[in-house]
Design brief:
RNA-binding, ribosomal protein, binds zinc ion, ribonucleoprotein, alpha+beta, 93 residues, large ribosomal subunit rRNA binding, Ribosomal_eL43, 2 domains, N-terminal domain of TfIIb, 13% strand, 3-stranded antiparallel sheet
Length: 93
Amino acid sequence: MVDQVLLMGRTKVVGPAGRFGARYGSTLRKKVRDVLLKRYSPQQCPFCGYTGGVVRVSVGLWTCRKCGAVWAGGAYYHRTEISKYFPKVVVRE
Ligand SMILES: [Zn+2]
């Protein structure tokens, strides 16, 4: 895993945020890393439960390759705090 990450031009400390080089300060890059790792990690489809088939169509719009469901989620993560509490409002099939 670590080797793969390094091969992809990423760094140990800030991961995918390594592309920003030395800019923006380490604290900010670490925050960006947390977001990006979440965004690129396999996510579970809330409809069929399949993990790894969830793709972001555009900002806040997610789809599942397995069952074809499309729903509105977060910009960088398929579920937001709001959709946990109001799944029927935020999630549309
Ligand atoms: Zn699905």
